[in-house]
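[SOLVED] Need 3D model of a two-part complex

Original post:
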Amino acid sequence: MDRGVVVVGAGIGGISAAASLRARGYDGEVTVVDAGDFPHDRPPLSKAYLAGKTGAADIALQPEHWYDDNRINLRCQRRATALRCEGAVELDDGTMIAASRVVLATGATAARPILPGIEDDRIHGLRTATDADRLAAALVPGARLLIVGAGLIGAEVASTATDIGCAVTLVDPTEIPLSQAFGADVADWLHGLAARRGVDVHTAAVRGFTSSREGITATIGETSADFDAVLMAVGMRADTALAAAAGLRLDRGVLVDDAMVSSNSAILAVGDVASPTGAFTGGRGHWETARLQADRVAATIVGQPLQAGAPPPPWFWTDRFGLHVEVVGEMSSGESVVVRGTFGEPPFAAFALRGDKLVGAVGVDDTKAVRAARRMIERDVSVDAEALRDISIDLRTLLSR
Amino acid sequence: MIDGIHVAALEDIPVGEGITIDRDRAGTADDIAVLRDDDGSVWALNDTCTHADASLAEGWVEDGYVECPLHSSKFCLKTGAVQGMPATRDAITHRVEVRDGNVYLYPRSS
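Solution:
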């Protein structure tokens, strides 16, 4: 007898899994457990939500009535503390929820490297709405903010904090952060935006912190400087505590096959906590990857066939300094790069080619180019580099060849 | 307004593209996106994506759907039904007619 599904974690992966179960006709009990106050989206946490331009209701993944409408039993402000082998999930208030299948959507936590002086509540991470609320309170005009790590989140917060009027310092030991994701030229240009917009950018490692009532002194390379707040934006660690306690096979996440099933057939995993080993991988850490994996989770649970064929090319977006940037495919796997438009003058796009096939594209304020590129990759069409470069040619016409 | 609002000649809306009709002209709360699907048919939806501040007239139109230019939520051109997150609310549709090579919009009162 089916005892229902418990989804642990209410990010885009967990909520999408619940939604897909219902969309695929699953009729059993569905419970979603999450430690946070409400299921919310994460991309706005470093952008509009952090800036105070959108509120909690705007970032809610689903409107409140959706959970009742879809018979989703939502248990917020609760932690799952154990997965019981008899088929139940134990919560921190002692409740046991019966489950035939468990979906681990526990996501990740912001990495917090062990550095001298890191235990100071003015040194922030950014992962949840609560984190964003705390950070936002520190981002007042004139505040001195140090951001450690110039990845997507570091760069986005640098942009948001600059708009607020903070004095922002951005430090990363890598000369060109995200060059794998954007391709070296675009990555260099995007990273350079921060300095051009007044951010104090350093290529260096942060070695530690000294706290005083007036602020935090950070040791950056061989120098030091004083700050009012620090954001550690140095990546994430998959939240595998429950999985490890349940004895699942792990690497940096929960190992899952193409059906998103872990080493225990009753337990599936999705999103940032999952570590796919099959052909269906997607871009690790990305919003859309979690959403697509969630649909596979649901298909597996209801026993419907998995979508065959190659996975869609990974896709993500980022917004910084007023520009909307999207990437599809893998820029780093190209042999040559073709620029459409004038490099450095948005809108423009860069396409990565391998032979006559497109393998990746990045658009700066050019979402049409990315949408066209996504279809070129999915449909495996041959493309002509000169045609990609020619802005008088509608990219849509290249799809039908 | 029995004849509707003449918004464009059909040939001025390329296949797969859209135009925006200002809310003041349409007499509606939101601007309206008039979109041309790849089969040549013409459809109209409220222009602002129900998720974030993006113009659906700038979106990718194909196969009965428009894909938002910001976060790729898809909306059915015919019904406005949303087909995937991040948006969770359907788009509002408006009636469009093509007569003698011209596109007429009949905004739904809002």
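Edit: Chain A has twelve helices and 25 strands.
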